[in-house]
Amino acid sequence: MDLDDALRTTAAVREFTDDPLTDETLYRILDSARFAPSGGNRQGSRVIVVRDAETREALVALTEPGARRYVAQATAGEQPWSSVRPSEVDEDTIAATEVPARFTQPIRTAAAVLVVCVDLSLVAATDAELDRVGVVAGGSVFPFAWNILLAANAEGFGGTLTTVAVAEEPGLKELLGIPATYAVACVIPLGVPVKRITKLSRRPVEEIATLGRFDGPPLTR
User: Fold this and answer.
1) Angle made by CA atoms 119, 69, 11, in degrees to the nearest 5
2) HEC readout, 27-89
3) DSSP character for 209?
4) Which of 72, 74, 143, 196 could staple 94 via S-S, CB 3.0–4.6 A?
5) Which of 110, 138, 112 is nearest to 125 (CA)?
6) Beta strands 182-191 and 45-50: pairing type?
């Protein structure tokens, strides 16, 4: 698979076959993914590979609270988990909301589940003192997480980068023995896709790139 194909066909995969993901294949995937850039090349990412059913069910339980809030807010017409607009959905409504299987089944059915972490003592969070949610520290871990999905695609596997379980990070740390200085960045279920996606729909360049200023003219060919 060439780079352009990998970039244009790496989809969010949530339905998997029963095919296994061997340690040997997973090693190859991570062996390629580890070349992702990180701040100062400090390489603070870590991956925990979860295979056993008991730990998966614990991950499902930790995923459900964040997913429940996500669905309740989306149903109310809000942007879920927005850091900009406070939610008006009350806790009783959230508690009564059912969690769709798409949030939990991938954890149960994937050939392996990866929990990706980053050592915050090794990242330069240059936005830490700004009056908004921090995003800069993710630059030292999410390129690695995305490389995992690209490398998995090249091996015939797929997955999706999920974050709703991170809302319950203390529970994740206790479950998996994650040290205090580490943050959980995402959970990635990996497996052989039931359906291979060959064409993705995305906004054109003209809608995402402008010249000179945010309100400048669009970049065109």
Assistant:
1) 65
2) HHHHHHHCCCCCHHHCCCEEEEEECCHHHHHHHHHHHHHHHHHHHHHHHCCCCCCCCCCCCCC
3) -
4) 72
5) 138
6) unpaired
Q: Which one, of 184, 217, 143, lies nearest residue 50 by Cα?
A: 184
For the entire predicted model, the pTM comes to 0.95
Structure-token pair, residue 102? 């798409």
* Helix/strand/coil for 108: helix
pLDDT tens digits along 154-166: 999 999 999 999 9
Q: What is the pLDDT of residues 87-108, one digit of tens each?
A: 999 999 999 999 999 999 999 9
- Per-residue b or e along 187-209, where b marks 16 or more CB atoms closer than 10 Å to that residue's CB: bbbbbbbeeeeeeeeeeeeeeee
Residue 96 Cα distances to 72, 87, 91, 99, angstroms:
9, 16, 9, 10
CATH superfamily ID and name for 3-208: NADH Oxidase (3.40.109.10)
Cα–Cα nearest to 153, from 11, 4, 57, 38: 11
DSSP state of 127: T
3-state secondary structure at position 199: coil
Contacts (Cβ under 8 Å, ≥6 apart) of 137: 118, 120, 123, 124, 125, 128, 183
Q: Residue 144's Cα: distance from chain center in Å?
A: 11
- Which residues, at least 6 apart from 139, have a Cβ–Cβ distance to it below 8 Å? 38, 39, 123
